[in-house]
Write a structure and sequence with these properties.
single chain, mainly beta, Immunoglobulin-like, 5-stranded mixed β-sheet, 4-stranded mixed β-sheet, 1 helix, globular
Length: 175
């Protein structure tokens, strides 16, 4: 029989793991999980809303007629290599250069990038017009997806809790 002389280190470890797991499981919203393609690098130590480490991003093929916008996600910035694009199919090629998972949410709005509503550390997706989203994907990986964008003003954000408020947002104008 295993006898533990000092049980407090085990209790502290169990409590720490429980708190970390709770803090990293998201905000309780039912968010669809994205199917991903594996890669040769391992993902970061962060976990997704399902409790599993986020997978590498999926790079869908770029349609020949789509305009490409390269986006870099970092702690704590979102950088788009284009500020203006033509209306129609817009292919977002997104590189997560951070050390933790990030996502890309495309929101159509006339508000400036730093003026979106925030609740619980996130932009409430039911209170803005989302036209496309690349679900959270692992650090040091890439994702690509096409969205049909009408003329107007857009904001590209990472909407993982706290990331928008830390500066992960950028404007995009579609002409």
């Amino acid at each position: 029989m295993l006898r533990v002389e000092k049980p407090w280190p085990v209790a502290v470890l169990v409590l720490t793991v429980a708190l970390f797991s709770t803090a990293c499981t998201g905000d309780g919203e039912d968010r669809p999980q994205v199917d991903v393609v594996g890669g040769d690098k391992t993902s970061s130590a962060s976990v997704s809303a399902s409790g599993a480490p986020p997978e590498r991003g999926v790079v869908e093929p770029k349609p020949p007629s789509a305009v490409q916008v390269d986006v870099e996600l970092k702690e704590w910035a979102t950088e788009a290599k284009a500020a203006r694009v033509s209306a129609g199919g817009v292919y977002f090629f997104v590189s997560n250069q951070g050390k933790q998972p990030h996502e890309l949410v495309v929101i159509q709005t006339d508000q400036s990038p730093d003026k979106l509503p925030v609740e619980g550390g996130r932009v409430p997706e039911g209170k803005v017009k989302i036209v496309g989203e690349i679900e959270p994907f692992a650090a040091e990986s890439k994702a690509g997806k096409t969205f049909n964008l009408a003329k107007g003003k857009y904001v590209l954000i990472c909407n993982i809790a706290g990331h928008y408020e830390l500066g992960m947002r950028v404007a995009l104008t579609v002409e």
